[in-house]
Specification:
By secondary structure, the protein is an alpha+beta fold. It contains 5 helices and 15 strands. The strands form 4 sheets. The protein has a 6-stranded antiparallel barrel. Strands 9-10-15-14 form a 4-stranded antiparallel beta sheet. The relative contact order is 0.15. About 0% of the residues have low confidence.
């Protein structure tokens, strides 16, 4: 397959966060070592762990969520889609195992890092000239966990906002990785508020509120989101929205909205319990660490 990469990848997950499989076409497949440094360094950790056999695959569209916005990437597989008459025997098809997905800083491409299973150099039909029809499949367990954690971060932000703590504002920094999730806030939140924050999170989960993805004009997003798009570093036009000035936001019913490009569950009850682990304070700001557990009352 030629070394040239597609300049643009349609991000299916932005409007359809439920699909776990997707039919698309492979537009390029190259060794990781051939990438320019700004792209290659995105995968430094994986290259250290697996020094040989890693490739970068691009597709015309993708259902894989790329790491960003505090959320880890999806993992899964990409398999060629042969004509029905050429379908291989069960268990004999070579697949591309996707280990990490990132946005290229050099283009609008979404880069899928992985290796072939079973391990081999570029095998047929992957070696065929592009475009090559393929099927993407993401891990449902990984997607669901990441979506729960990301939605939980917004529930936590809403809980603090609804408590109207004096001098406290939600910051623009958060992390939704398993084992290291947190949300930052402006101002010093007393440790004595931990139980109240936990109780409010429990209430929002127990109410099983709708979690909806919205696409709003910039002005409406500025009006309706508790953290403004401009405060998040978003631009009025271009890649930060999904078209001419639109801003993608996640809205929790009766609890608030936030500019967000991540994946989410459909209702707060799907998150399980948002466990407030600790509140740390430094330099006029607070960080609330959290994790997700079983649903309240189960």
């Amino acid at each position: 397959m030629p070394a040239g990469r597609s300049n643009s990848t349609e991000a299916i997950y932005l409007r359809d966060g439920r699909s776990l499989t997707h039919s698309t076409t492979i537009t390029s497949l190259v060794p990781l070592s051939s990438l320019p440094d700004p792209d290659r360094t995105l995968f430094k950790q994986q290259e250290q762990e697996i020094p040989n056999g890693l490739h970068i695959l691009t597709t015309s569209s993708t259902v894989f969520y790329p790491q960003g916005g505090g959320q880890p990437s999806d993992v899964g597989s990409i398999s060629p889609t042969p004509p029905a008459k050429d379908s291989p025997p069960p268990g004999s098809q070579v697949t591309f195992t996707v280990l990490s997905v990132r946005h290229s800083p050099l283009s609008s491409s979404i880069l899928h890092l992985g290796h072939f299973t079973p391990s081999s150099p570029i095998p047929p039909p992957f070696s065929s000239p592009p475009p090559l029809p393929c099927t993407q499949s993401i891990s449902p367990q990984t997607r669901h966990l990441h979506s729960r954690l990301h939605t939980a971060g917004h529930i936590l932000g809403s809980a603090v906002a609804l408590l109207s703590l004096p001098g406290i504002t939600e910051g623009t920094r958060a992390m939704h990785f398993p084992g290291s999730s947190f949300v930052d806030f402006g101002g010093l939140i007393p440790g004595t508020q931990k139980d109240a924050i936990q109780a409010k999170c429990d209430e929002l989960v127990a109410r099983d509120l709708a979690v909806d993805i919205q696409f709003w004009a910039w002005e409406e997003a500025e009006r309706r989101c508790s953290v403004k798009p401009g405060e998040m570093g978003l631009r009025r036009e271009g890649e930060d929205g999904d078209g001419d000035g639109e801003v993608r936001a996640v809205e929790i019913e009766d609890a608030g909205a936030y500019p967000c490009g991540g994946t989410h569950v459909g209702r707060t009850g799907e998150v399980g319990r948002v466990v407030v682990r600790r509140i740390s304070r430094a330099k006029g700001a607070s960080k609330i660490s959290y994790e997700v557990g079983e649903r309240v009352g189960t």
